[in-house]
Structure formats: C-alpha cells, structure tokens
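so the lab meeting is tmrw and i was supposed to have these ready like two days ago... anyway. pasting both below. for each one the top line is the aa sequence and the line under it is the structure tokens. i havent really looked at them closely yet so no promises
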Amino acid sequence: MKGMLTGLFVGIILFVSGTIQAQDIVIDYGGPYEGMPGDTIWFEVSLSDVSGLQIGNFNFTVQFDGELFEDLETADIFDGPVVPTTTVKNARTTEEVRLAWASTSQFLQGSGVLFSVRAVLSDVGYNENGIRIERYVLGTDAQGFDIEPPFPYSIPVHVYDSEPAEIDVDTSLLDFEDVIIGQTASLSFTISNPGVSDLAIISLTNANSAFSVDDIADAVISPSGEVEVE
C-alpha cells in the first residue's frame, strides 16, 4: 500500500473583478463516510449560494488516507454545476490529481456541488482524519468572505469487513401512573436490531435510582430480532 495519505490538489487559475461586500459562505463536505472494501463513495464539496459574488477562483488541498482508499485517478474527479465551464484535469501521479478552471467573464453560480471525487474503499480500518481538507482558497482576500468551516477540516472514514448491526429503541413514553408508596409497578420497552449483523449489548445504564432496569449486558440480538427490557 502506498503511503498513509493520498493527496488531492484542486487548483483554480483566478480571475476576479469588482468589489463585493463581505458575505458568509458555507462549505459542505458530507460524511462521515463508511462502507466495505471495494465499495465506492462519492466525496462532494458543496457551496451555499454564491450567485452574484463574482468568485473566479478556488483552490483546495484534500488528502485521502491511502490505507483506506485506492489510488485516485484523473477520471475520478467530476465537475459540479456551480462551475460554469469545463475544467481541465491532470493526474500527475496516482497520488496527486489537479483540476483547473479559468474564465475572464464567468464566475461560480448558484449553490450545490463544486466538484466531486469518486473514491474506492480498500482496506478495513477507521480514521477520524480519513479525508482531510488541509487548506482552501475561495475568492480573494480583498473580497473578505467569511467561510465555514475553517481548515484544516477532517471527515471520519470507516471501512468494515461486514455490514454493521443497527439499534432501534422504542422511545414511547412509559407512564406508571399512580404507584402506592412501598409498592412497585413494571413496564417494558423494546430494543431491536433492524441491521444484517448480530447486535451485542455491552451495557445498559440507569441514570435514575428510583427505577430499576433489567441487566441485559452481554445480550446478543440477531438480525431482525428484538429483546424486551423491563
């Protein structure tokens, strides 16, 4: 496996004109991303509405964990509808891909996907920094945009060797009504597993000493199964 990190550099040749009042811009990277080896995920960089801001440049440096992803190629990067004209792509190596766009008369428009990357998961593992935005530039310093979130910014990636279990807890209100002092009343709720793998219950914590809850630690709920807790 090549290195721990696969680098992706997205660069834009910039042309900006006019003076624009400072405005908030929000970038959305999606995630967290998860799946099994061989699965394809789509990493999308999306923007809030940038119409009329005359943004003629952007520059992103994004790193992918080389232990969790296969090598990136030029064909794995796609233009989004926010970019008005076709980008020029170049894969210098299997670990670095560049994308460039230049226009003297057109600017980023609307909201939505700026660009997307198709990435294939490789080896089992977990990394809180599985995809990491090391830096970006959007617009110029003179335009003074307030951009969120700031960089560096990380998105967790989890590659597992089997489909995960799921947990569904019945959250219906348990109403004991009136209980005479010294006596008890019992009600129950259900924990179910709508997933495709066994669900292991490690612990169940009771935060109120006025109540007692069945100890179901170490219980295993099979797919589509459930357990009643009193």
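ok protien two:
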Amino acid sequence: MRKLAIALTALFASALLSIGSVQPTLAASGSFELHVPVLYYHRIRCYPVGVPSKGDYTCPAAFQAQMTALVSHGWKTITIDRLADLMHQHNCPPRRTLVVSFDDGSLDNYEVAAPILESLGMRGSFLVNPGRVGQPNRMSFDQMRDLLARGHAIGNHRLTHLSLPNQPPETLYAEIEGAQQLLQQNIGFRPRTFAYPYGRYGKKGPQVMDQVRASGFELAFTVVRGARESSNAPLLSRRLRTSTQTTDRGCSSS
C-alpha cells in the first residue's frame, strides 16, 4: 500500500508538471485565454462497497498525498472567484497555479477536504446544490459561510441534482436561477461560477447555457478534460478529474 501511494503521488505530480505554464494567450481574434488547471473531486472518503458511482470517491489518504505532492512541486491554489477575476482583468497568475474544486456540497468536503487543504496552505472551491441542504451528509449554509470566512469559495452546481439538457425553460430557471436566489438569501451573495451537473450543458441547443448566462455567471465548468479558460467561451471552461482510491491514474490536460 505504501509503495502504491508513493507511485500515485509521483505520477500525479509529474502529470501536472507538464501543465505548468499558465501564461495567457492572446489569439488572433483578440480573445484571452488562460490554462489554469481546475481539478475536480466529489466525495473525499473511501468508496463504500455497494454504493454506485465509485469514481466519485477519493480516499482521504490519497487526496492528502495528491495535495502534498502538488505543494512539494511548487503548486499554489487560487479559488474559482480569483480565476474569474483574472479572466475579467486579462491578467495571469504565477506559474504552477491551480484550482481545487469539489462538486455537490457533501459534508466530507467540509469535514475532511477543507482541513487537509488548510494544513498545506491551500484553499478549495466548493460548488454546491443549495436545494439539498438539510439532507443527510450535505453541508449546511452555516458551514458554507464558515468556509467562506476561512478563505475558500462557494459556487453554484444547480438547485438539486437534475441533469439539465432537455428540461423545459421553467425547470432550467428553477434549477439555476432558483439556486442563485437561495444562495444569496443564505450566504449573502450570488456565486459567480457554475458547474454543469454531470458536465452536461446541451450540445444540441443553447437553452442551458442561455439560462447560465442570464443568471450572471462569469465562468462555468464542464467535465471536458483539459486546462483552458477562454474569453470567447467562458461558460465552457474545462476541468481535470484526478485519480481516486489508490490507483495509478494521474491527471493530464487534453
């Protein structure tokens, strides 16, 4: 197990080293691009036998090994809000800057992931489903406010856990704008960033992205593999999924 953890750590770090440049790109069209890696996780706990979506689980020891490897190789975190600032300002962060994000607002994000990040001088970005607050194993609004006070960021991941493509306009409004309003009521502001549920934004039609745009989001994240944020397509930003459990899979840009 120890040898496997060491191998995982080395592979994870070396994969991200290949993405090390986050220098801006000014394309011929005048668009501005960054290539800041945005890692995404779900649950920071070991996979419970019999539970679906095994890939959503990352053991705490594996997560800590990954974050420790990043820090030891000179990587530093910014939040999704800071990334939105940089895009708006057409500014570039230092080399070896990345975002560590978490989808769904699970309680272990608050109880396990945030303390691990803080112990290493890092901060996370938590994209939550405010309509699920009060359900078992979900963060409360008090915990979200506490994360904000500790330097982390909160983003929107829609109201519940509904896949958005092919939904009627009133459902899209309730899931996306309704989540914005609920978050504003309970944490004091409307988040600037959004993550599409299951990464699905509706490739055959603009309805989902139209509502995301109408709700005022500055950046929205898919699960298309890569490290790219573009002023031409800020609502189609890419992310990187990491290895989970104790496998030898790392992460890399596409």
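from a quick look at the 2nd one: Confidence is low (pLDDT under 50) at residues 1-8, 245-254. The helical segments are 2-17, 60-72, 80-89, 107-119, 141-149, 169-187, 207-214. will dig more after coffe
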